[in-house]
Amino acid sequence: MISIGIDLGGTNIKTALVHREKGFLKTSSIPTEAEEGKEHVFDRIALAIEALLKDEKDKPIGVGMGLPGMVSMDRKTVKSPPNLPGWKTENVSSEIEKRTGLPCVIENDANLAALGSARFGVGTELDYFIMVTLGTGVGGGIIINNKIYRGTTGMAGELGHVIIDYHGPLSNSNTRGGVEAYLGQRFLSRFAADLIRQNTDNPLYIKFHKDFEKLEPVDLYKAANEDNNLAIDILRKAGEKLGYAIVNYVHILDIRKIVVSGGVAKAGKFLLKPAYDTAAKYLMPPFLEEFEIIYESLGNDAALLGAASLAFEELQ
To answer: Do 86 and 189 share a domain, yes or no?
Structure first.
């Protein structure tokens, strides 16, 4: 059995043909061209699906799609997704079905990263876990009894907007000090640039002082690997903030396995060890039993595999 997985972002439309047991059969990516408007984006998605199915003999069961924003409980409609100009409340499912003839279900992209991990990644061994995605922003997905927990209207799991310091920096949250303000890629880079400017003899300043817009978390990781103490300290502070957030997640949900994915998570031990140490320090003792932070190496592929898995599970 095969299905189509789509990861719709503001920059690229990633598509995959996925076998239920074997995983990826074929993948592709095309620019979203989001600035051209929603109808154009829907047409682009249909074009990508058509290209993916060229010369394919077997018909897919349908389309599963991940996208940013809050998705309705029936998995058809998204509300005001970020980075997609002109989108308000859109029935994405019907637009894709109209253009391709294939049934379509949609879900928040971070929820699908969690589902992809549950079906194809480190989450296959876990019935309960919390996925934290550290990318451009911070997203989350909650797996309970091997299924996505979606709350009462389908919008649960906005873990990046949990507030850990009301006097902290701004991000996309409605108030200061959300988790995303410390661990979203552009916010972490902004924080790092402020500290690097104060250390003009540091190799990171020498490399980036003419254009700090080019500084990314991966540069901090590379510098930390070269024993750059400033980079190590920046990642440690970010990891500690993640640890405080995890304390909240675990105390609320009583789920002890935390799966971390995304580009920022590639900082590895420099980020995740401070996160673990901080969480272990402040968790109530009974919650320490079986507590673990696990890195998901699937990265962005997790959302694509999760999208295809959603189609398998909802469209049979």
So the answer is: no
User: Looking at the structure, do residues 129 and 36 belong to the same domain, yes or no?
Assistant: no
> Per residue in 106-152, pLDDT tens?
999 999 999 999 999 999 999 999 999 998 889 999 999 999 999 99
**Residue-number span of the structural domain to which 225 is assigned:** 125-295
Q: Are 259 and 132 in contact (CB under 8 A)?
A: yes
d(CA 157, CA 142): 6
For residue 290, count CB atoms less than 10 angstroms from its CB and return exposed for 0-12, middle for 13-18, buried for 19 or more: exposed
Rounded Cα–Cα distance for residues 87 and 37 (Å): 8
79, burial (CB in 10 Å: exposed 0-12, middle 13-18, buried 19+): middle
Same domain, 195 and 283: yes
Domain of residue 56, CATH code: 3.30.420.40
User: Does the reported pTM lie above 0.85?
Assistant: yes
φ, ψ (nearest 5 deg) of residue 241 = -65, -40
> Residues 253-294: pLDDT tens digits?
999 999 999 989 999 999 999 999 999 999 999 999 999 999
Kindly state whether residues 225 and 133 are assigned to the same domain: yes
